[in-house]
Amino acid sequence: MTQHEPDTALPQDAAGLQLADAILRVPAAALVTERPEEFLEYVADALEELLTARVEISWADVDLQPPVPAMPHHVRLAVKQQDVPYATLDLLSAYELDPNALFALEHLAEDLTLHVDALTMRRMRKVLRELRAAMASSSGLDAVTHAAVEVAVRHMDAEAAILLLSMNGELKPLAAQGEWSDDPTAVAQVTSVARLGLEALAPMAHADSFITVPVATGRPARLVLVLKFSPLRQTHSLTFPVLAEMASVAAPFLDARWRDRILTELLELNRATEETSTTEIYERALRTALKLVPGADSGTLLTRSDPEEPFLYQAAIGFDLEKLSRQPVTEEAARAWYGPDDAGWSHGLPRVLSRSDTDIDHLGTSISPVESAEHKQYDQIKATLCLPVLRDGKVMAVLNLDNLSEVGEFGVDSEQFSYLFGAPLASLLHRQNTRDLLRKAAMTDELTGLANRRAFNAALSREILRAHRTGLGPSVLHMDLKSFKAINDAYGHTVGDRVLMGVADAIRANVRTIDVAARYGGDEFMGLLIDTPQEHAEKVADRIRQAVATIDVGLGPTRIDIGVASYQADGDEGAQLIRVADERMYAAKQAED
User: Fold this and answer.
1) Do 383 and 354 contact (CB within 8 A), yes or no?
2) Whole-angstrom Cα distance, residue 158 to residue 167?
3) Residue 399 in 3-state DSSP?
4) Which residues, other chains included, contact 589 with Cβ-Cβ below 8 Å and sequence gap of 6+?
5) Burial class (CB in 10 A: 0-12, 13-18, 19+), 551
6) Which of 143-162 are b and which e, b meaning 16 or more Cβ less than 10 Å from the residue's Cβ?
7) What distance in Å separates the CA atoms of residue 264 and residue 268, rounded to the nearest whole number?
């Protein structure tokens, strides 16, 4: 926009030509700079000197349509950046400008746009090159995030920056640079700005001080970079294309490091010592999944040892494991939480069901008993991610991760990261099953299936230590069959073995699952009754005598002598309880004779 239309033919006077040439040479003579705004400021100063005029710059992100100055002679140069308005240079003169100068200025605007674009691309390449180098040379998630924040602050001239991770409805700082106030009002403002940034598809300005940049390879975004600037500093130097490209470069690096963290933690699980129980291993595996799979804030882990058996709950976080474990889960019920994808189930692929596509309340109550439904709290689940875990081509475990906060919280990244748990969990499952079988074999009497002497003594030691802490202690039953030699002599060892197995069944049927029944050797049996006072232990002993008496192989009812000893009443050490129970058992035997 000019008040003078330039002549179509170039004026021929030497002074005018010299001025036009000087104007057109201004961009090339600019000082070396990486920043487009510094380049335009230099151009403005040079034009003021050449034309004896005042030059005002308006930045498009501050004022997209600046008012036309009220001056007799005015020329406006519109400069773009990546085809988007970037700045306007208003030349204000009290005198009519030379036609040669007007002709040159008309072409200068286009030349300035080319220079601004070139500077922008050069700057972008430099920033991205440095960002890639910094992140590639950093090992571990912490180092990578700090490298990204440092590059952003330095190249964007920000006062401070913080990279936040959205997990389970909360924002967790991963890396920060500069000063961030811990005042609740300031924290609330940054949190609000960050949440808006996560929902945006591109870099976004907030008020006068913040710019947010979502960092993600997919949706929803989990990471957001918040840049803070001085309110006095114009932010026109912050080109959103540069920030968007920085985010696209950083996202794959951060995803890769997050995968590394998952694999490292899974490796640590597989390095667990032999002393780590199966229950503890499964709980640690579930906690690891909840910590590292985006969107997961509760869940369960089910396993089975045979493909024809139902699944059993092995770990639960956010739900009552004790009550859930009472109900085996059929494969049909487990698959209902996966959805109608036979191929995905058989190949161990993760799948998400959310309230947007599934009636989760109806699903839960229709496939599970009422008791289980009460403890699963289906009404709280917004989305659920199911991962079938294969071993030898069969689904032998199911990892269910639930989101209780936001529908759609599980994204593609959640499925990708959960898939990483498949192979390690399968290996862990196989190892634990093998260990449990070996441990069971080493601690079990081969004939009766009861615990052996070693297992009983270990359990007694554990209970005595616990009793020292809690004050509650066990009772011990020492049991010995009467006239067992006569059965072997009359009918042989095969019948004798059948009697021993019948006695084991009678003992097993009359103690609780938390108690320990053991074959101590030959025809001797032991019982460890957890947290049981003597009067209750005597009742258990009476029930066992009556049950054993029903066993008759032709010599009349089988009889068993039982001695009872209880913690505190008869001693506070395991050896004492065994000795007292043994003495009472022999006293009972002699009394009958």
Assistant:
1) yes
2) 26
3) strand
4) 480, 482, 561
5) buried
6) ebbbbbbbbbbebbebbbbb
7) 6
**β-pairing, 312-317 with 204-206?**
unpaired
Per-residue DSSP letter, 570 = S
Q: How many helices and strands (H and E) does the chain possess?
A: 19, 17
Cβ count near 97 (within 10 Å): 21
Cα 513 vs. chain centroid, distance in angstroms? Answer: 35
Domains defined for the chain, CATH in brackets? 14-126 (3.30.450), 138-254 (3.30.450.40), 272-438 (3.30.450.40), 444-592 (3.30.70.270)
Identity (one letter) of the amino acid at 29? A
Nearest CA to 170 among 209, 150, 198? 198
As a three-state string, the secondary structure of 470-530 is: HCCCCEEEEEEEECHHHHHHHHCHHHHHHHHHHHHHHHHHCCCCCCEEEEEECCEEEEEEC
Helix (H, G, I), strand (E, B) or coil at 165: strand
pTM score: 0.61
Residue 117 vs residues 46, 80, 90, 94, 148: alpha-carbon distances, Å: 20, 8, 20, 32, 25
Q: Which pLDDT tens digits describe the chain residue by residue (593 residues)? A: 444 444 444 445 777 788 888 888 888 877 667 778 888 989 999 998 888 888 998 887 666 677 777 667 888 899 888 788 888 999 998 888 888 888 888 889 889 999 888 888 888 888 889 888 988 888 888 899 999 999 989 888 889 999 999 887 789 999 999 999 889 999 999 999 999 998 888 898 887 789 999 998 877 888 999 999 887 665 554 567 788 889 999 989 888 888 888 888 888 877 775 667 778 888 888 999 998 898 888 899 999 888 888 998 989 998 888 788 778 888 888 888 888 888 999 999 999 988 877 777 777 766 655 444 444 567 778 888 999 999 888 999 999 999 887 656 788 889 989 998 888 888 777 776 666 666 666 678 889 989 899 889 989 998 999 898 888 899 999 999 988 888 888 888 889 999 999 999 999 999 998 899 999 988 999 999 999 999 999 999 999 999 999 998 888 889 999 999 999 999 999 999 999 999 999 998 887 76
Per-position b or e across 213-249, b if 16+ CB within 10 A of its CB: bbbbbeebbbbbbbbbbeeeeebbbbbbebbbbbbeb
Cα 166 from chain centroid (whole Å):
10
CA-closest candidate to residue 349, choices 392, 310, 301, 387:
387
**Alpha carbon separation from 299 to 142, 318, 399 (Å, rounded):** 27, 7, 8
> Max CA-CA distance within the chain?
143
User: Which residues, other chains included, contact 239 with Cβ-Cβ below 8 Å and sequence gap of 6+?
Assistant: 36, 81, 82, 120, 123, 124
Contacts of 302 (CB under 8 A, 6+ apart): 311, 312, 313, 314, 329, 334, 397, 398, 400
Given a contact cutoff of 8 angstroms between Cβ atoms, the answer to whether 486 and 555 are in contact is yes
Name the residue with tokens 């209902």: 336
Residue 477 has φ and ψ, to the nearest 5°, of -110, 125
**In whole angstroms, what is the distance from residue 581 CA to residue 586 CA?**
9
- In 3D space, the residue among 413, 140, 429 whose CA is nearest the CA of residue 263 turns out to be 140
Alpha-carbon gap, residue 554 to 93, rounded angstroms: 129
Helical residues (DSSP H) of 273-341, grouped into ranges: 278-292, 321-324, 331-336
